[in-house]
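Handout, section B. The chain below has 358 residues.
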Amino acid sequence: MNSKKEQNKIIELQEVIIPEETSKRITALRFLLIVFVVFLHVLTEEATANENKNLWIYIRTSFLEICNTAVPLFFLFASYIQFRKNDKYSLLLKKRSRSLLVPYIIWTVICMLFYFCVQSFTQFNNLFREIDIIRNWHLTNYFKAFFYHRAEGLKQPLLGQYWFIRELMILIIISPILKLIYDKSKGFLMLFSTIVIFGNMPTYILVDSRSLFFYILGIYFAKSEKVSFFDIADYFKSYEYLFIFIAIQIFKCFNLYLGSLELLFNCLLILKISKYLIQKEKVYNTLKYLSGFSFFLYSVHWPFIINPLKAIVPRIISNNPLQFFTIGIICIFIGTGIGIFIKKIFPFLFALLNGGRK
C-alpha cells in the first residue's frame, strides 16, 4: 500500500512540475519533428542547382520552412523540461551524460566505421562524398569528427545532424550561468537573445544564435506560472494562422522574406497543431509509441539510409516532387522499423543507442 501511495505522489509531483497537457503535446510532437528533420536532409544541393523555379519549388520551400521548426522547438522543449524539473547540477550532468553524451560517442564511432567500410568499395564512393577517405586521416581528424568535422557554414561533427546534440550539451553545461543572468536581470537576457537571433550575430560560445534564443526562451516559460508557449499558440484561431501563412507565401513571390519572424510564426503553428494531435486517443497513443523511436530515427537516418536512397530512387522515379517525398517516407519507415526490430530483439542495445530511452 505504501509503495502505491508513493508512486501516486510521484505522479502528482510530475504533473505539478510539467502540466499533463503540456507533457502530452510535447510527446505528440517529438516524432513529427524528427520526420521534419529527415525531410530537411533529403534535399541536396545538386538537386536544387539543376531546377528552374516553378510551383513545386515554392511548395517545397514552404514545406521545408515548416520543417525548419524542428530543431528550435527541440531546444525550447529541452530547456523548458530541464528548468521545470530543476535538478541539481551534478544530477543534471549525470542524466545528460547518459542520454546525450554516451549515444553521441557511440553513434560517431559507428559513423566512422560505416564510412571506413563503404569507402573500401570504389563503387560506393559517389554515395558518400561528404568526407575525406578515413584511411588517410590524421589524429586531428578523429578529434574533429566529434566536434567540427565540416568547417563551412555551421560547423558540424562527422554525424552532421548531431550538431544539435553538441550545442545542447554546451548549453546545458553553461545553463547555471544563464540561470544566474535570468535571476539577476530577466529583461537583459531576453533582449540579448532577441538581438542575437534577429541580428544573426555570432555568440562566441560555439552555439548557433537560434539555438541560444530558443533555449533561453525555454527558461522564461519554465519559470513562468502564468503562461506557456502552448497558451500563446492557442490564442490565435486556426483561420488566423491560415491567413498569415498565405500572406507569407505571397510575400515570397515578391522576394520578400521574413527570416526569423517566419520561423517564430511556423513554430507557433506547429505548437497549435499539437492541440489537435492529442484530442483523439488513438492518434495520441500512436504518436506516443513512435516518440520512443524518435531519437533512434534522428541518429540513423543520415547518412546510413538517406544517402543510398538518394542514389537508388532517382533511377526509378524521375519526377522531382515524387522523388523527394518517396526518399523521405521510405527513410522514415526503414529507420523506425530498424529501431522497432532492435528494441524487440536486443532491448539493451536499443537502450544504449537510444540514450537510455526505452
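Note. The chain is about 75% helix and 0% strand. Compare this with the example in section A.
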